[in-house]
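so ive been stuck on this for like two days lol. basically i have the seq below and the ligand is adenosine-5'-diphosphate, smiles is in there too. i just want the complex predicted, nothing fancy, no docking runs or whatever. if the output looks off dont worry ill sanity check it later, just need somthing to start from for the group meeting slides
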Amino acid sequence: MRMDKDIRQRDRSLIRELIEALPLATLVIAEDDRVIATNAVARALLPSLRGDELLARSLRAPDVLDSVARVRASGSSERVIWLERVPVERSFEVSVAPFGGDEFEPALILSLHDLTEARRLERMRVDFVANASHELRTPLASLLGFVETLQGPAREDVAARGKFLAIMREQAQRMSRLVDDLLSLSRIEQHLHVRPDTPVDLVGILRHIVDTLTPMAHDHQVELKIAAPPQAIVAGDRDELLRVAENLIENAIKYGAAAAVTQNKTVDIFIGIQGAQAVLTVCDHGPGIALDHLPRLTERFYRVDVGESRAKGGTGLGLAIVKHIVARHRGRLNIESKPGEGASFSVNLPLFEA
Ligand SMILES: Nc1ncnc2c1ncn2[C@@H]1O[C@H](COP(=O)(O)OP(=O)(O)O)[C@@H](O)[C@H]1O
Ligand SMILES: [Mg+2]
């Protein structure tokens, strides 16, 4: 085997070109543990990586370095999991394989498969199932408790029966709302990549929802004020956009205006046109939402106050549904709040283009 210096340089640049075309972050290290080739994906992923530097100096990953030593000793490839905690938590499956020795100098090739996103999704899925089961279990346990009481100690107690049945009905309704919300969430998710394209008048939708929510606003002594142009035609799905308007206005009544510490019990609703977008804004002057809750508000089952939300018939899925619908419409949801002064939710939606 000739190890002429020029030939080696030429071989190495060939390897560089070759791995540049690979989709996985890839690096090649020589027998002396120096990094002789990296591709763009690897350089973007590991900015500390330096060419012609010892691997141990640019990669602080003891598990990977151990694996490199093992593969070098055994001559057979292996895979290791590398967890990086700083600056952000990331995880990779690193494959370490021997390479060369015949035509090419003996080397090792490392390729990194980023597992971070897959792990995050997996965790979300597990949390979601746990949360959904927990949310269903509470009303279910209460229902069973009352059924047993009615079959046993309260069998002949007419007054108790009426009271218990009313509670049972409420719990069953809560479960039914939850199942409805879960089903619509999964339906919307299924169609997330299909953009709705029928012309829908956002102003008509708003007026319809305001009509249906007026009795509820009335019960809470809340006034709904609308400012909108005659029409705003967006490309959308009518039923889904009805749900968006309903969720936002209902929240503004329940958690905003009705709980307002000031005398201002109005919910201001605007529709405006900005460029190629229609913007729906729902503003209340209630207690608002503390800054640290804002980014998590659209997570499934996330509520600032779980007890309050349950007492008001909430499932904690409303804003998650809104977020998904808006995403499906290629729109944007924006939430702003100054604690003590109210909250403002606005949705941008692309106008319909004939
Ligand atoms: N206008 C608002 N003012 C204050 N808090 C709000 C407002 N809108 C939503 N929230 C908070 O966000 C939480 C999540 O809302 P949502 O996803 O619609 O669930 P739900 O209404 O079923 O509780 C609510 O429980 C409430 O804590
Ligand atoms: Mg809600």
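The two ends are 70 Å apart (CA to CA). The chain has a mean pLDDT of 92.
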